[in-house]
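Table S2 (continued). Query chain:
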Amino acid sequence: MSRSERLTGLTFREQLPVVLVGLGHGGVHWVAAAFYVLLPYLARDLDLSYTQAGLLVTLFHVTSVLTNFGSGLLVDITGKRVLFQVLSLVVCALALAGFGVAGSLLWLGLMVVFIGASNNLWHPAAISFLSRRFPRNKGYALSIHATGANLGDAVAPLAAGALLAFLSWGPSASIVVIPVLVVAALLALILRDDAAKDSKGLTFQGYLEGMGKVVRDGNVLGLCLMSGLRTMAQAGLLVFLPLYLTDEMHLGPLWMGLALAVMQSGGVLAAPVAGVVSDRIGRRPIVVGGLSLSTVLIVLLAVVGTGLPFIVGIALLGFALFAVRPVVHSWMMDITPPELGGSATSLMFGVQAGLSALAPLIGGVIADHYGLGSVFYFLAAIMLAANLAVVTLVRQRIPE
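Corresponding output:
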C-alpha cells in the first residue's frame, strides 16, 4: 500500500480527478472572492451606500436560491455531472469579465445574476460526482473539493488586490478570470472519459418519489438549517471583512487581499485533516468543534477591533470556519441516496443561499446605523444558532 493510499484511502492515480474537481471548485470561488474584493472600489466609484453594496451581494445569493430549484434536478435526471461543472466555470468567468465593459449598475446586476446562477450550478454536479466516484472516501474527496475553494478564496484576493494596485476595477475584473477559464479547459479535456461514462440519470417520476422521501427526513432538514446558518455567517464575513479592513483599518488593496488570504489559508490546512478524520470518527464531533470555535473567534474579532491581534483572529477563524464545510457536505451525502446526490446538494445549498441573502442586507443596515464593528456581533449570534441546530440532528454512526 502506497503512502498516499495509507493516509487518504486513495491511490496516487485516483487523486487526479479529486484534485481537478477541487481546482474547479477553486475557480468558482475565485470568481466570487474577486467580486468581493472589487466591491469596495466599485461601490466607491458608483457612490453606493453600505446598504446598496449589500443589496448587490444579496442579488448574488437570491439568484443562487432560484438556480437551486432546477440545478439539482438537471444533474440527477441528465447525469451529466462533468458537463455542468465545465459550463459553470465558463459562465461565471465570462460574467465577471463582463464587469470590464459595465456602463451602469443595471449591467453589473445582470453580471452578478450570472455569477450567482453558475456558482450554484457547480455544487450539485461536483459534490454528487465525487460522492459517487469515491463512496468510501467521500470525506477526504470532499475535503479536497473544499480545499480548492479555500485556495480560490485565498489567492483570488491577492490577485485582484495586485491588479487593483495598477488598474481600475473594470479591467481588473476582466483579467483576473483567466485562470478560471484554463481550469475549465483542463476539466473538459482530462475528465472527458468520466463525462462519457456519466450515468443516464433518473426518470422524472423516480426523481419526485426519491425527493419526497428526502424532504420528509428530519435529519436532512436539520442539516440544511445548520448548514444554512453557518453559511449565512460566512457570507456576512466575506462581505464585511473587506469593508472593515479598507474603511476602518485603512488597508490598501494589496494588504487587504493578503489579510483575506490569511483567513482562507487556515481552511487550506484544516479541510483535508477534518475530512480524513471525519471518515474515521464521524461527522458530528468535527462540526460541533468547528462551529463552537468559530462563534468564539467572531466575538473576539469584535472585541479586539484592530491591529495584529485582529489579523491573527482572522487566521484562526479561517481554520475553524472552513474545516466544517466539507464535513457538512459529506454528512449530507451519507444520509441521502447516491442517485439523489445532486438534488440533496441543491436542497442544502438552496437553504444556504436563501439565508446568506439576508446577511449582507441586514449587516448593511446594522453597519449604516451602528458601525461596521457591530456587524461581527450579529454574525456571532448567527453562528451560535448554527451550533444549536446541531442538537436537532440524530446521532449518526461512523460511515463504513
